[in-house]
Write a structure and sequence with these properties.
The strands form five sheets. Strands 8-7-9-10-6-11-12-13-14 form a nine-stranded mixed β-sheet. Strands 17-18-16-15-19-22-23 form a seven-stranded mixed β-sheet. A three-stranded antiparallel β-sheet has the order 2-1-3, with no helix packed on it. With 455 residues, it is of the alpha/beta class. It contains eleven helices and 23 strands. The termini are far apart. Helices cover 25% and strands 28% of the residues. It folds into three domains: 42 residues; 208 residues, Rossmann fold, CATH 3.40.50.300; 160 residues, Ribosomal Protein S5, domain 2 (2-Layer Sandwich).
């Protein structure tokens, strides 16, 4: 026996509650519980009937050879790199980002590029009219491309439009928060509507083989709006980051079942659309000619791509009892650890000063290989001795002061050599797969060995 009930569902995490509360007991969000209909089933009754009607599934073995993954390349190199050498057919991709960052522009360019290659592509818009999309396409120089436009928010009508003829190759849904299905009695954008709409689109992608790319909004905290279960349902999650005050945009694959995760694509926003940046290391390095104290170049890895980034540090006498620690683009807790190691293991007394650390270009670094570059920038700012501009640094710092090896050291050195760097400081341990580098290698085992260079 099925009984309709009304649950209060959190719009942030998807947790259900039998009564309204001001604060979600699961995630702690305030005023996020919304009343939604649900079906409560008597235990065992429907399950037995469904079990009698169900047919056994086909069991396959790992040895059963299937077809290779077929991909659709958009021709936009940075986008194809982020998704793994093109979009896999039958995959569902979620693209998230802040308002105005360029999600719709990027996907319109991608859909138009795919349509120009002879593939069939559809663009469903739930936020803009087709005339608005045509204006954007005209600005981007895409008016002549055979791309199908539809302004629709009903999931059933979207599915009927896609299924009325031959299956399209590429479908864009902008955005998932605007969709609603007739099967659920709740407002668009609620947890139930978003989950049901995504399930229907994923089922279509698996059954008929088109690439489904869905746009998702983000909350004020930068998280994808809606239940986290959506991120687990899709095959790839791409986040589009950037600063509205700058033209640089980063497309990062935080999840990818058909390619490497944490791969990035770099774009430059202009009036005529997003342009690819083939050599992003040049964007993250200082363009000045003089040497400045407190600046060090870090040879990092983002996904499979090597990136050279400038780390900037500034020390100032603190007028307060508790000195300030300000970090942009790096982990503040890791900065505190590096400062403690410098004081305890290297005898460098920085604790009484305000410390400001910045990663140039708006990039956010998460790998521990940046420890040595941060320490070098701090030592340079503390001593006032400028570091050579043709030197790169990378290595993880342990609590004992030991420098630990990091992954892909050979790739980092090759990128540094390609950009004209002549020397590198790296951990003493760790294997380098290739010899004959034009870069002079200085291998250190302890952080205090680096600190002695500033004595």
């Amino acid at each position: 026996m099925v009984k309709l009930a009304q649950d209060y569902v959190c719009q942030s995490c998807g947790a259900a509650s039998s009564k309204w509360q001001g604060k979600c007991p699961s995630c702690g969000a305030w005023n996020s519980l919304s009343q939604e209909g649900s079906a409560l089933t008597a235990p065992g009754s429907v399950g037995l009937k469904a079990k009698r009607r169900a047919k056994a599934a086909t069991i396959e073995s790992l040895a059963d050879g299937g077809p290779d993954v077929q991909r659709i390349a958009s021709g936009i190199g940075e986008l194809d790199r982020a998704v793994g050498d093109g979009f896999a057919r039958g995959s569902a991709v979620l693209v998230s980002g802040e308002p105005g960052i360029g999600k719709s522009t990027l996907l319109l360019q991608a859909a138009a590029a795919i349509a120009a290659q002879g593939h069939s592509a559809l663009y469903f818009s739930g936020e803009e009219a087709t005339d608005q999309i045509r204006l954007r396409a005209s600005r981007l120089g895409l008016s002549k491309v055979p791309l199908g436009l539809v302004a629709e928010t009903c999931v059933e009508r979207i599915l009927a439009t896609i299924e009325q003829g031959p299956a399209p190759d590429f479908v864009v849904i902008d955005s998932i928060q605007t969709l609603w299905t007739e099967a659920i009695e709740s407002a668009p954008g609620t947890v139930s509507q978003v989950r049901a709409g995504m399930q229907s689109l994923i089922a279509l992608a698996k059954a008929r083989g088109p690439v489904i790319v869905v746009v998702g909004h983000v909350t004020k905290d930068g998280q994808i709006a809606g239940p986290k279960v959506i991120e687990h349902m899709v095959d790839a999650v791409l986040t589009f980051d950037g600063d509205n005050a700058h033209n640089l945009r980063l497309l990062r694959a935080t999840k990818n079942r058909f390619g490497p995760a944490n791969e990035i694509g770099v774009f430059d926003m202009h009036g005529d659309g997003l342009r690819e940046v083939s050599n992003p290391s040049q964007l993250f390095l200082s363009q000045g000619d003089g040497e400045v104290a407190g600046s060090a170049v870090f040879a990092g890895i983002e996904g499979t791509r090597p990136l050279l980034v400038e780390i900037q540090a500034l020390l100032a006498p603190s007028p307060y009892a508790a000195p300030r620690r300000s970090v942009v683009g790096w982990d503040q807790n890791r900065l505190a650890m590096i400062l403690a190691v410098l004081e305890a293991r290297c005898g460098v007394k920085i604790g009484a000063q305000d410390v400001y650390l910045n990663v140039a270009g708006g990039l956010r670094i998460s790998e521990p290989a940046a420890d040595m570059a941060v320490a070098a920038a701090l030592l340079s700012a503390f001593s006032g001795i400028a570091l050579p501009k043709d030197t790169v640094y990378f290595g993880e710092v342990g609590l004992s002061g030991a420098l630990r090896p990091v992954q892909q050291m050979t790739v980092r050195l090759k990128e540094a050599q390609k950009l004209g760097f002549r020397s590198a400081f790296l951990p003493a341990a760790g294997e380098i797969l290739s010899n004959g580098f034009a870069v002079k290698l200085t291998r250190l085992s302890q952080l205090k060995d680096l600190a002695t260079l500033f004595a």
